[in-house]
Design brief:
The structure is a single chain. By secondary structure, this protein is mainly alpha-helical. It folds into 2 domains: about 90 residues; about 60 residues. It is about 65% helix and about 0% strand. The protein has 9 helices and no strands. Helix 2 crosses helix 5 and helix 6 packs antiparallel against helix 7.
Length: about 190
Amino acid sequence: MPATSEKRTREEELALIAGFLSRKPLAEVSFLDAVRPLIRGQARRHFPERWQDVDDVEQTALLRVCELRETEAGRKHLCPWLWELAKLAVDAPVAVLFRAKKTLPLKDWDRAVPPNQEAAFELKRLLSISVSLPRGMAATMLCQASFVTGEGPALHEALDIDERSARRRLARAQDAVIEIAEGGEAELKDE
């Protein structure tokens, strides 16, 4: 068992957990005051390379502990010893931090490059062509654009059709946009 500033018996920890599950405010505060140093200690001890994120890890771990009591399966994890609970609560937020993309230091960044105005103009032109298509094709192109920019669901979900049909609709709409953009006559039919 890890060293703590206050040694507790199993019965005392069971009483703290029972108070936390009862949702009585003073009992919750006592429980969280008892588990907070354990969480912080777990984060520092097992993940020293993430010391700068210890406050975020602590907050996320405490939130996870509070979420555990909301479900029956989660309540099974709320068992003594509290240091085991602290370890369980810390593992998930730290795993997320390790997956987070690290930014480059400023000295490693590429120097500024002038924006490509031609590409931006061409994109606006293609979007205006897309909007002028018949209703079904325009909706297909707009749904795909919102999905690609991260503002909407996948095309098949947005149109509420199967994936294969969505791919075919998108291909027909893209072909029509390209044909019109190149100055040709596209065969347009509403979908």
